[in-house]
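Agenda item 2: protoporphyrin IX containing FE complex prediction
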Amino acid sequence: MLLIAIVVLLLTVASLCHWRQRGRRAAVANLPGPYCFPLIGALHRVINLNPKNFLKRSHKYSIELGHLQRVWVLNRLMITSSDVEFNEQVLASQEHLVKHQVYKVLGQWLGNGLLLSDGKVWYQRRKIITPTFHFSILEQFVEVFDLQSNLCVQRLEQRANGETFDVYPFVCLAALDIIAETAMGTKVNAQLAESTPYANAVTECTALMAWRFMSFYLQSELLFTLTHPHLKLRQMQLIRTMHAFTTEVIKQRRQILEGMQRVGAEQPLQNEVGGKRRMALLDVLLQASVDGRPLRDEEIREEVDTFMFEGHDTTTSALSFCLWCISRNPQVQAKMLEEILHVLGSDRSRAVTMRDLGELKYVECVIKESLRIYPPVPLVGRKLQTDFKYTHSKFGAAVIPAGSEILMGIIGMHNDEKNFPDPHLFKPERHANSERSTSSFAYVPFSAGPRNCVGQKFAQLEMKMLLAKIVREYELLPLGEPVQAVVNIVLRSDTGFQMGMRRRSQP
Ligand code: HEM
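Presented output:
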């Protein structure tokens, strides 16, 4: 009896849901999609997705059903797209700016920071933050990039013995030092033995959240807490450590700023303790105002935390993949070295300037090509708050209903031969010759439109500096296993980033 009652109840719920969704089903009936069972939809397709199989499966589904698909999972409608024509309309839209709910995993750490916020809060913060990456401020950061890159080169010396090693940990700590010093004006000494508890917490928390990100059920804070209470406690501890650190840094810098304003210094923030004369991104936030009032410490903390997360994990991924690609392409490496020696010379004691970096045109193409094959942010997602009207050469003019989720595959577009001939070949020259697809939206490692990456220029300069210094000093050797890209919030490699290094003879 009980069993029959359960079956009847389930069938009733299923029919009710099906009936309630009929309008939404009709709206996307023009799009191909996998078979959907009653009630659960295509749950079978997502339930056992994990970082390792994600890319392979997405590729397989896209060959079977095309680049633009509708997928029902329970009562959720997801549109998955590596279709340039469709993605261009979503990315360029001024209306559909709300992030996909999967980003909520980062919520307790980053709060309402720029990456996660939406609506008025996002708009106001974006207006404040965009100028923080102004040319004149980036120019001051080049000195930090230069000094921290020297330290990274020095640390790599221990591995320059022609044996296989994983370059990831070296690059990760360098990126962390760079973002901490530029975002907060504070050294965390991640590359030195005496690294701070804060630096350790950032790396550990990033890894924990990356793991949760790719699991359908662990994305929910409630299910994560219920199934992994010890990890939940650890996550809370790490977040407390990070928030306490950033709050203290903000407090101290606010006091310095107020003190200097009291004594009427003309350019208060260019003269701070320790004899440094450099702005930090934080200083710009401390001087900003919203609706006529200064930002509260908590609001500033959310932005600083966002910089710390976005600014180290993505660049670490980008740099590691790029170094690996260089190690496997000796001709590219030789051409890079020629340019680096021509522009920077061989005097290691000369500080590299913004102007030098601007002249490294081939290095720029190498970075672009690596970001094409291995974009650190392989997917971006939106949650539609209102209906989204689009037109498509194959599917016509149609509407994706409000409440739907859109997942756009940057990696899919970048590795599609329609957009880039011989997509698996590492050819930096294609960026110099603009041997490109007709739409600029086919190549979007930093996303595009109103929610594109604010740190794009920062990241490019930082990468150029580190790559140029490493390649000038060491020959990168094609040793060890190949990379195996996995999706863990950002793109990483399951096999690490294996290579060898050998010190170059002095020219
Ligand atoms: C190679 C390095 C980087 C890559 C590939 C990258 C890529 C991206 C992408 C694709 C987005 C859009 C995400 C989305 O729509 O879901 C984004 C957003 C963002 N990035 Fe980056 N990023 C990089 C470095 C940085 C750095 C160094 C910073 C800061 C110092 C930064 C700060 C941000 C912020 C604050 C946002 C949110 C912007 C908004 O929503 O208005 N990124 N980034």
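Discussion summary: The first helix runs from residue 2 to 20.
Owner for follow-up: CH.
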